[in-house]
């Protein structure tokens, strides 16, 4: 049954089966959904820069604040299979619009929260709401854009999200200082609600634009009899687990560096202040924003085999992680800045190419479900590796109140081992599991 399930993938995503891939409405779909995804990443990292304000407002400690912030990720990861199922059944437009309304409601609760407990509730609702964007977006783009365009569009989509992460740093600090963090989140809630309503009333699902002939043809080619939309059949596929492991490793190492240890590592190694280190850390998401659309375009226009490109990017990433571990990197801090930018750039390409491979090897009727089941893997990778690397730092211990550079070398050695593991798995699974893109 599994062979039949995956053997229909080429027919399911063939441009000829999608009659409206040249319709200008697809750009409205992409633009509105990308604008909403901008807010997904914004909310993901927003609490880090207003943490001092939250500690003062709620008179709480770092443990409670960490729990409050983590509620986003737990709610986000928990619902992904459900969101994927609904994206297949209800269509991307309804899921994205309704879930974004939920996110706006959570943002409002967070802004008005009288206690850290209520702030945790608001944060969880935000996570639940924005968790209904990525999976339906992949479904929508697979319907509206041709196979050769998909890599580029996913790259641009991921870049839009990381641009939101950048806006949640210094610009959010300025806004919170000028108007207060509560007023800032009230405004963000209003913007989120407006985008949700724009999505609901201005965009259309691909099936709504099809002619009756096209609809019947698509229905026949993707009938449940031929491609059964079964959770069991997806979870018992070796291909599914290979994809999940690769997402786990790439996302876990990237966000462990960019979202947790890059700034303190720079402060420890080069004895620089927080502001200076945080600005250098911004090179990582800037690299991601550059690399996602660039490698996506190259993967669809230049490289005939996407899997070969994926392996090359893994090798580049391994080289860069090795550069962080060595004691004397060429050009000192400038060399580290180059390494961090390239890490972001190559990781952006890896995400883009991997999601493209997933799309090309998954039947359209199963794309939402499969994406929903795969999307928790990156979150799980982030959670596991951040805890693991923190334990490594504590095992080495602090010197004069900071972790020494040697401690971070141990952390980065673990990340390097994970990336090498991803390369080995990709090489072993190359012929058996991945189709030529």
Name the poorly predicted regions: 1-19, 209-228
User: Mind telling me the CATH class of the largest domain?
Assistant: Mainly Alpha
CATH homologous superfamily caption of the largest domain:
MFS general substrate transporter like domains
Number of domain modules: 2
The average pLDDT is: 83
**Any idea what the CATH architecture of the largest domain is?**
Up-down Bundle
How many distinct beta strands?
0
Radius of gyration: 22 Å
Q: Could you explain the architecture of this structure?
A:
This protein is an all-alpha fold. The protein folds into two domains: about 15-205, MFS general substrate transporter like domains (Growth Hormone, Chain: A, Up-down Bundle), CATH 1.20.1250; about 230-435, Up-down Bundle (Growth Hormone, Chain: A), CATH 1.20.1250. About 80% of the residues lie in helices and about 0% in strands. It contains 21 helices and no strands. Mean pLDDT is about 85; it is low at about 1-20 and about 210-230.
